[in-house]
Amino acid sequence: MLGRLSTPEKIQRFLDEEVAYNKEPDGPTCRSPRRVLRDLTGHCMEGALFGAAALRRLGHPPLLVDLEAVRDDDHVLAVFRERGHWGAIAKSNYSGLRFREPVYRTLRELAMSYFEHYYNPAGEKTLRAYSRTVDLARFDHLEWMTSEEDLWPVAEHLGTVRHYRILTPSMERGLRRVDPRLMAAGRVGLRE
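Given the sequence above, the corresponding structure tokens read:
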């Protein structure tokens, strides 16, 4: 199956079209890429792990970046570089929080491309920071790509790495609510 996912775009399409969003009805999970592939279900962390494994098969290092939010869930990206520019693969119920073409010169530019689309149900723009990259090769001893166990050590590690703030306090105080049309557009294709 992974052999068919020969480009970042095909990996994203697979996550969008074949993998149901995991709402964790039986409690929290942190599935490995093998389990995502077997169960055809995953949430943002699980989708990022899957994306990183698929990118690794294409010769990219398996890198994750954590987008940190307030009054909202964090979002995790599998990031890659092509021709010196960053792109991302991501699993989300919100259309604006998914794939990014590799056109961003820095990780900050990439993270900022998610800013307007990162909001909670109250319409607050919630993105506040992004992490440095985490190379999942450091977790090869856990067999993270094929493990039958939940990968909580990876998720916990993401929370401990350095994050870079993107807004000053005065910027945060001046944020406006998300336009209702953008909120509606972000929910196109949402699987309830």
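The mean pLDDT is 95. Try to locate this feature in the token string yourself.
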